[in-house]
Write a structure and sequence with these properties.
Layout (H helix, E strand, L loop, with lengths): L1 H14 L3 H9 L14 H6 L5 H9 L14 H8 L2 H8 L15 H7 L6 H13 L14 H6 L6 H12 L8 H10 L20 H10 L2 H9 L15 H7 L3 H9 L11 H6 L13 H11 L14 H7 L3 H9 L20 H10 L1 E4 L9 E5 L15 H8 L10 H39 L9 H26 L4 H22 L6 H23 L4 H38 L9 H12 L15 H34 L1 H21 L3 H13 L10 E4 L9 E3 L2 E3 L8 E4 L3 E4 L7 E3 L1 H40 L1
Antiparallel strand pairs: 1-2, 2-3, 4-5, 5-8, 6-7
Helix pairs in contact: 1-2, 2-4, 5-6, 5-7, 6-8, 7-8, 8-10, 13-15, 14-15, 15-17, 17-19, 18-19, 21-29, 22-23, 22-25, 22-29, 23-24, 24-25, 25-26, 26-27, 26-28, 26-29
């Protein structure tokens, strides 16, 4: 209901042309893409209405696509052309990926404007046509009745000759205009003074002095003359007359990969940093080209291979080409960008990550490609496994968390299983080894302070040997309260990303602090209320200790804590509907005076029903009054509550534990990822609140979160390398150029400073080898298919000769 009100408010704001209200509604998640009763969206209305440029900009800023196409095939540019407003069209064309010649009802935007031309809108249509031509619209596309835009203008009898002359001249000035003999005759008949260009160059030799010539070669695919112009020291950094695009951008717009490759190889080319060429190409990947020499996919490959563009370049909204490739479902673009080390964790202005919506299968294939091997045989002593982390390594010019993409994977149900991928497992372990000591130190200290807090409470109600140490335990309890307040509440609230689990832990710590202060100051053992508060404090401390065990990165321990948590949540969720039945039976027992409950309170009756639901019937003490009806109620209780309900809860618990056991390793890795994210904030963020904490930690222990290297490799067959076991993965310290590592007591290796020598457990090596074997199997199958295809082709050639 609330969403419907927002859409209604959005529509009202647009009708009243209230820009502020429109923006405020969009900020509150109003959806301009939701169709109304007539199947028309607010975004479509905005596009098709003149003088609505600000509304279009707001819609695009809050998630609408400039290359939007509805289910009927009508694109945003088609709606904008209906408005006859050049500003609406300009705002769309400033964004990448807009198909300027998209057809709707067999009319491109240019065709539609020319067909709807009349004396009232001639000036507006002229500006729209001029803008479309500037952004690459083709004047040669025919509609369903074989009419071009030029023909529509020429045959329009309602226009004044001077207005018609202006638009015809505009179309004739286009470099790629095609005029057949019939149309040429009609144009000259209408105005004999027209100077019409030939459709093809009569002389293949083109004058170098004409600035437009190079651009003509690009748009027409005349590669012979194009090569000649480049060899004659043509200015490749200029712009054609009447265009605001460079030659490189024109080659991309027409998909001329040959011209693009030659331009990028030119020694005098100066590539500006703000062209966003990859963004321009991403939206056109897999697009069917208008000309035979066009290939946008090839242009994309050429541009990436040139090394002249930043694969992580960002537009005004901080979105990268990888983000758009994933959003537009351009699988080719995603693969190519990842192949050229596009960073997976780049965050946009709206906190969107490219990895959020990526296809899990495609991402897993990419991770497989990041694992390679060197060596003729796996049995070879020098067999080497190489891991490439470039798409996960934070670029030097980006201020963010290196764990960002891994945290996103841990939160996503679709991607979480990839934490078990050997590439990600080793990445997590590489970072974990640098802060594991600090974590275990924190765990031990927290556990000790918490246990002393519990011992102090017990000592207040005990008369044995603990009573003698009550004063010392009270002093330690105050230290424990201070420690929990400082570390578990203040510091962790600054560092932790707030989730349901972290909020629950924060509440537990605050309650422990409050109840412990009460026990230390206002506790009176003679009052039973004080004993109740002390008992609840002990239970909360036990919950805290259990959570500590559950946070340990050892899934053989944390698995059972996770089971307890999930089964508890399942039981609490089921209590809402099931408790109605239990309470109803308790009230029935109260009315029937089972166990003399009528002499007690209603709460006692309900507690008795809960106890009986576990099987504690004490049937001899019930005291049935009637022969049939009260026994019938008791039998119904036994069947539905004690048997059906209890077995149902057991089945739910069994289902939960089975699922947790199946994903135990993933859950453990998720714990580590969350811990690493927290510690990375502590050691990398420049926040005044934690600067003193960081200095204090570094004063006692020089601990830093390890930066991810670009690549890591290991020799799995060299068993003798000295290592330190860390979470099923064993690593040696960082080795620089001058460090020599003993191998076979004979060979020495000089290592680059951003490489590690790693040795893995048998489980990890098995996973590596599975990936390598699978890749080898796919490659063998590909080669086999290629061989079969060649043989079939040879057979066909032989048959055709015969």
């Amino acid at each position: 209901m609330e969403l419907e009100l927002r859409e209604l408010q959005l529509s009202r704001a647009f009708e009243q042309r209230d820009v502020k209200l429109f923006e405020e509604t969009l900020r509150l998640h109003g959806n301009p893409n939701k169709p109304d009763g007539n199947g028309i969206t607010i975004y479509e209305k905005v596009l098709a209405t003149a003088d609505c440029g600000k509304f279009i900009q707001l819609c695009i800023r809050y998630g609408c696509k400039s290359n939007y196409i509805n289910e009927n095939g009508k694109a945003a540019i088609n709606f904008a052309s209906d408005s006859r407003d050049s500003e609406n069209i300009r705002i769309l064309l400033e964004h990448q990926g807009v198909q300027v010649d998209n057809k709707y009802n067999d009319l491109t935007p240019l065709n539609s404007l020319a067909k709807g031309l009349n004396i009232q809108n001639v000036d507006q249509v002229k500006e729209c046509i001029k803008l479309l031509l500037l952004y690459g619209a083709s004047p040669n596309i025919l509609d369903d009745v074989e009419m071009s835009p030029l023909q529509y203008v020429l045959y329009n009898k309602n226009l004044e000759n001077n207005k018609k002359q202006e638009i015809i001249s505009l179309l004739l000035q286009h470099h790629d205009i095609y005029i057949d003999d019939d149309l040429r005759y009609e144009l000259l008949e209408w105005n004999p003074s027209l100077v019409l260009k030939p459709n093809t160059h009569p002389n293949p030799s083109i004058e170098v002095n004409r600035v437009l010539t190079l651009e003509e070669c690009i748009t027409s695919g005349d590669h012979v003359n194009f090569d000649q112009l480049l060899n004659d020291q043509f200015d490749v950094n200029g712009k054609p007359q009447g265009f605001d695009k460079t030659y490189v951008e024109i080659a991309i717009a027409y998909g001329n990969w040959y011209a693009l490759e030659k331009l990028l190889q030119h020694k005098d080319l100066k590539m500006p940093n703000n062209l966003e060429l990859l963004h321009q190409l991403t939206g056109r990947l897999d697009e069917r080209p208008q000309k035979t020499f066009s290939d946008y996919n090839k242009c994309f490959e050429v541009l990436l291979a040139s090394g002249l563009v930043d694969v992580n370049e960002r537009d005004k909204s901080d979105r990268t080409p990888l983000y758009y490739a994933i959003s537009y479902n351009k699988e080719f673009g995603v693969r190519e960008l990842l192949k050229h080390d596009a960073y997976l964790g780049m965050k946009s202005y709206f906190n969107e990550l490219a990895i959020d919506d990526i296809d899990p299968v495609l991402l897993e294939e990419h991770f497989d490609d990041c694992i390679t091997s060197e060596g003729s045989s796996r049995a070879d002593k020098n067999f080497k496994i190489i891991l490439n982390y470039k798409t996960l390594k934070l670029p030097s010019n980006i201020n963010s968390s290196e764990m960002e993409p891994i945290c996103t994977m841990a939160k996503s149900k679709a991607l979480r299983h990839l934490l078990k991928h050997p590439l990600i497992t080793t990445l997590i372990t590489l970072k974990w080894q640098s802060i594991s000591l600090l974590f275990y130190l924190y765990t031990v200290i927290s556990a000790l302070f918490t246990i002393f807090l519990m011992l102090h409470i017990i000592s207040m109600y005990s008369h044995d040997w603990m009573f003698k140490f009550a004063l010392i335990l009270k002093l330690i309890s105050w230290l424990s309260v201070g420690y929990i307040a400082m570390v578990d509440v203040l510091i962790k609230s600054c560092l932790t990303r707030f989730t349901k689990s972290s909020i629950f832990g924060l509440i537990i710590n605050i309650l422990i602090i409050a109840l412990s202060i009460f026990n230390n100051i206002m506790n009176n053992p003679e009052q039973y209320r004080s004993r109740i508060i002390a008992a609840f404090t002990i239970l909360l401390i036990a919950v805290k200790l259990t959570r500590h065990i559950g946070s340990l990165p050892v899934y053989s321990l944390s698995m059972y804590v996770l089971m307890l948590r999930e089964v508890s949540f399942t039981f609490l969720r089921s209590c809402i509907p099931y408790s109605i039945l239990v309470i109803s039976f308790g009230l029935s027992f109260y009315v029937l005076n089972f166990h003399n409950l009528s002499e007690k309170s209603i709460s006692d009756a309900i507690m008795r029903a809960i106890s009986m639901s576990t099987g504690e019937f004490n049937e001899n003490e019930i005291g049935f009054k009637e022969l049939f009806f009260d026994r019938l109620i008791f039998v119904i209780f036994v069947i539905y509550i004690s048997i059906v309900l209890m077995n149902l809860l057991s089945a739910l618990a069994f289902s939960d534990t089975q699922a947790i056991q199946a994903s135990a390793e993933v859950n453990s890795l998720t714990h580590i990822v969350n811990l690493l994210s927290c510690y990375e904030v502590l050691f990398t963020k420049s926040w005044g609140r934690i600067e003193s904490i960081r200095k204090l930690i570094n004063h006692f222990a020089n601990i830093k979160v390890a930066n991810l290297p670009e690549s890591v490799y290991t020799f799995p067959n060299k068993k003798h390398i000295d290592t330190t076991v860390t979470n099923s993965c064993e690593m040696m310290p960082l080795t620089n150029k001058n460090t020599r590592t003993r191998q076979d007591n004979q060979n020495n290796i000089n290592m680059h400073e951003d490489h590690f020598i790693m040795k893995f457990s048998n489980t990890t090596i098995k996973r590596f080898l599975q990936v390598i074997d699978q890749k080898a199997k796919i490659e063998r199958q590909r080669q086999l298919n290629s061989t079969i295809a060649k043989k079939l082709e040879n057979i066909e050639n032989m048959l055709s000769i015969r």
